[in-house]
Design a protein that fits this description.
Endonuclease Iii, domain 2; Endonuclease III, domain 1
Length: about 210
């Protein structure tokens, strides 16, 4: 069953209020961060390609590469499927990401069908495509599909945000943070927004693009 969908700022505010009431540390973080960003983006091929582009690079680098891909028309599924290595390298993609981008474009992935699947099935379908790991799939579910109860514990900024906010002795690993986030259901996607915003305020860094 598909759960709550974050459609607009009011949904984010509702989730933030729930989290603040459930966990005093979230209430503290929200005082510092102010209203949280919506972070919704159009679903489909371009959104997932953008997540691949963002893997393991800085926000500035991802933005620059994405701008070159857009200028070359390579954010279109058919164009990416037909692109050669030279064109993709000129846009800034590594050999590996060029392969992943083409694999995504040439896959049988049905983006319309994903909208109607439960969160776990969305992730399972996405990770079946080469180059898409659990982090990328969860980011897509959160921001392109607007799923309210998805979390991405493999994200380093989320791990560091949790360490700072909850005064942990060390940065929690993926499994530990996933377990910790269970208490934030049914608004784990909003909890992620709080942690990213808090991390940005404390460290003056951007968590994700």
């Amino acid at each position: 069953m598909v759960g709550r969908i974050i459609e607009g700022p009011d949904c984010v505010a509702e989730g933030a209020a729930w989290l603040a009431a459930a966990e005093p540390r979230f209430a503290h973080a929200l005082v510092l961060t102010g209203p949280l960003p919506l972070r919704r983006r159009p679903e489909g091929f371009a959104a997932l390609l953008s997540a691949i582009v963002s893997q393991q690079v800085s926000v500035a680098s991802a933005n620059a590469i994405w701008a070159r891909l857009e200028a070359a028309g390579l954010t279109d599924r058919a164009a990416m499927a037909a692109a050669d290595d030279e064109a993709l390298r000129a846009a800034g993609l590594s050999r590996q990401k060029a392969r992943y981008g083409r694999a995504l474009a040439q896959s049988a992935l049905d983006f319309d069908a994903l909208r109607h699947l439960p969160d776990a099935e969305v992730v399972a379908h996405l990770v079946a495509v080469p180059g898409i790991g659990v982090w990328t799939a969860e980011i897509y579910a959160m921001f392109a599909l607007g799923r309210a109860d998805v979390f991405a514990p493999g994200d380093l900024a989320l791990q560091e945000g949790a360490r700072l906010l909850f005064d942990l002795p060390e940065r929690p690993k993926d499994r530990a943070l996933r377990s910790m986030a269970e208490a934030w259901s049914p608004w784990r996607s909003v909890a992620a927004r709080v942690l990213w915003a808090y991390y940005h305020v404390i460290r003056q860094r951007e968590g994700i693009r």
